[in-house]
Amino acid sequence: MKGPTEMRVIGYGRCSTDGQDTSLDVQERAVLAEATRRGWTVTWLSDRGISGASANRPALRAALALLEAGEADALVATKVDRLSRSTGDFADLLATAQRQGWNVVVLDLGMDLSTPMGRAMSQMAAVFAELERNLIGQRTREALAVRRTQGVLLGRRATTPVDVVARVCRERANGATLQRIADGLNADGVPTAQGGASWKPGTIAALVKRAGRAN
């Protein structure tokens, strides 16, 4: 990484609602003030009206592309939540920065990957990101287990139209084979639940089973 007085930095700002122009102005002024103090050249990019829950944001993507291409040396933000509200996403960002050789500076934390303390903080972020992922996985498993005990059927929700279900059940009750029902639906061009036009005996059997369980 380059020395602190040689860096070309991308100042990044984000606000969640379109009306927060003042918030973006405050963020930009803070980054520009720090850049002046440290002798940086700044390119300012911002995402307006976009949540920090996802890293898929136009200005942030543009910033990361410039950094990867070597067109800038550091990404600077006033606060962590301007970059990401997810510990996992922030840890991934730090890992990408270290792998590609650019810096991340977060003003309110005094975080700077060019310093030993900054690198230590990035390692801590990675640890907490792993903890966050593990806790989310545990909560998901526990929630699914509770739903199973309550008799909730899990999995992809069936989207077969009611009239198609009724037709299948009626023909099956009248003694039609699974293959015959499937052939009839295919001949009539009836789409499957996933939008295709190829019914199979196994699909018909599953549909009849679901319909009987629902009743």
Describe what you observe in this structure.
This protein has helices spanning 21-38, 58-68, 80-83, 87-100, 116-149, 162-173, 178-187, 201-214; strands at residues 8-15, 41-48, 74-77, 103-106, 111-112. Helix 4 packs antiparallel against helix 5 (116-149) and helix 6 packs across helix 8 (201-214). 54% of the residues lie in helices and 12% in strands. The chain has 215 residues and is α/β, with parallel strands linked by helices. The mean pLDDT is 83. It is elongated and about 85 Å long. It has a 5-stranded mixed beta sheet, sandwiched between helices. The protein is built from 8 helices and 5 strands; from the N terminus they run βαβαβααββαααα.
Helix and strand sequence: EHEHEHHEEHHHH
Coarse structural class:
alpha/beta
Principal-axes geometry comes out as elongated
Helix content: 40-55%
What's the total count of β strands? 5
Individual helix count: 8
Round the Cα radius of gyration to an integer and report it.
27 Å
In terms of per-residue confidence, which ranges show pLDDT below 50 for 5 or more consecutive residues?
Answer: none
Q: Report the average pLDDT across residues.
A: 83
Biggest sheet, open or closed, and with what strands and sense?
A: 5 strands, mixed
What share of residues are in beta strands?
Answer: 5-15%
With strands numbered from the N-terminus, the spatial order across the biggest sheet is: 2-1-3-4-5
Straight-line distance between termini:
66 Å
